[in-house]
Amino acid sequence: MVKYIIMKRYYNFKTTVATFACCLFFSISSIFASTYPNTLIGNEKGLFLLSELSQVQLWNKASVKKIIKTNGWYFLTDNGILYSEDLTTFEYRNNGLPINIIKHFDGKEISFNTKTENLKDLEVNPSNQNILITLTRDQVYITYDGGLNWEKEGFNARSNGAKAVAVCNIPNSQGTSDLTLFMSHSIYGLSYKQPNVDNKWHDITTGFEKMNTLSYADEISDIYTTKNGEVYLTQTFIPRLYKLDWNQKAAIMLVKGEQPQDTWDSLTSLNGNLIFMTPSGLKSYKEETKSITSSFSQSLKDGYARVSSMAQIPLCAWLPATVAGNEKGVSLSELWMTCPQKIESDYATKIANHHSVFVPPSQVSDDAGIARYSTIIKENNLDSIVINMKDDYGGLRYKSTDPEILEKGYVSHYSVDLDKFIPTFKEQGVYLIARIVVFKDKNLWKYNFGKYAVKDSVTGKQWQGLRGYETIELAPSKKLEAQVEKEKKFILQKTNSEKALAGAGFEPTKSAKIPQAPTPVTKKVPSYYDEQWVDPYSEDVWAYNVKIAQELIRLGFDEIQFDYIRFPTDGINLNNAEFTWRDQGMDKEDALISFLSYARENIDAPIGIDIYGANGWYRTGARTGQDVEILSSYVDVICPMFYPSHFEQQFLAYEPAIERPYRVYYYGTYRNSVIARNKALIRPWIQAFYLNCSYDKQYYDDNGDYVRREMFGVRDATQNGYMFWNNSGRYTDLSPCPTTDDIYPWDSYEASIKYKKPALSK
Hints:
This protein is α+β, with helices and mostly antiparallel strands. The chain has a domain at 353-461 and 534-751: Glycosidases (TIM Barrel), CATH 3.20.20. Helix content is 25%, strand content 30%. The chain contains 16 helices and 42 strands. A nine-stranded parallel sheet has the order 40-39-38-36-32-29-28-42-41. It is globular. The N and C termini lie far apart (69 Å). The relative contact order is 0.08.
């Protein structure tokens, strides 16, 4: 009986607490509804409803990058288009959109997942809420039924690199209001299409600014359209705001920012004014004064501050009318710029602000070599080393003890004694980065009769990039040479005998003509690039390289740096390259995502990748598959090779041309960071070597000023560190890393103290 009473009281107590909690929840919800009704936040973890006390997760299947409010809710996610009528039930609306096929490998079995290909933007027609437009890296899609079905609308360029889209109704050539689509490309600028008029994209280039010495307008970040058919645009890397003159098919600049480089994006309107996101915060363009301001209502300031202060970096937000201070609310995207110096990585603190030098392994094989690099590090204020542990030919530069690695790999004669190397530099506080060359691997290319090699579809053998053909002279056979010599000797003997018999009046007969050496025989032979590629689709190749990375982390390295994370790009026979490990439906992007996903799951350390400088400068993965927007989700560090010698020699070489190294790294590092949206830290390779090209012939100096200009360029862009590359280990051009207080000693206007440093900051 006593037990029954106690239990009854216990359950009554639980019921009372539950009732109280429920009432408290609805009370909080009521406060929330009146203060923050439908304030939504999208980030890497999903969609959240924001209250004064907390945030409630509404959906968690993918990251949310943009929010559009119509009769319902549309969300741009990293798995396509999501729709909800009530913020309670959600459904994907991806029918007709392309997919990525991601291969998963657990060490024994493979499986496949599909996800909608990365969508760059999403917009709704302001005159018809059932018409929406989106785009992938190389295709525009439109829906006329609220996203239930998507149709292709083509593309404006030969290479991928899309950024933004928009749709509205604008008069056609006959003056009739017609559906008009817009898109922007990272290289080729703005294009439009009127599907009911023709099936072509038409470029609009007039009026948009371009960087000095470049041929195309700089990337357009966003396109905003109105019901009246007005079109406004911003640029991603140079701060400009435009209005499109539709009749003239030309951009009219409305306002220009003060900084040499800045990012203006997420363009929309609020209470009759254009607003947009920047790393310095939310900005507004005042038409009456033709100026930019940060003046907003107190409710909007408070709402924006609340969004910006979230622990997880926000990607987008929907601020309702009560917060936005208008009649319908406002959508903000590209909100990673609220934290422009924060890197979204689990290893953000560990990878931050390292200054490294590349060390050829053969140069630290003894105590003297180790001592030399210890001195280089100390004298130049460096704190890190990058060293090959698997080189460009597949040779292991350390003594592996893993039988699975040794089954396929071989230890180079020039390997490093890690038992000495690692403790010595660890005692000096040096951060150690192991460089592993992945898909360029001569050893694995030859392994087991080319099992893992890229194949030649014509010959069926291992593929190798063909430079061209060389004409060589074939040596005559020894038998032919001997025959000629024999005939020559016989004729000379015969001629001498005839001369002796005939006396002084002797004239040799025609038959006495001495034979000449045979006419040289030539032959055209192929000349190949010194590169041997293995198949990036092969899970065995992935496992082999990840095994090496795991062993190196166990031995004491701090970070893994994968190089040649790409497909082959060189050779007149490139079209013959065949990837026999490719599974049906997969493309280059799928292969690299699959490999890096596998690496991320199996390596408990920061992962970096080296990329071409062009893939860091432009928003494109053309030729290589190195699409920074995509790959930044799978790695912690991206290392672009912005070597001035590797760009066109007039690239940014405006007067004073000697400042070109500073400009390449100042602009390049900033651009790469913005493209990655700070999901990965950008730590570029600095050119610390001379190349026999026209610019270096004139400007590369022995006093190190060329290299020092590059160092200042990175510092003034992001202040996140850099690495010096010289394949021969000649580092006489180095000087101590400039501090944040050091004044740029030369004459590049971008380096002026009147501009914010770093450029990517508030």
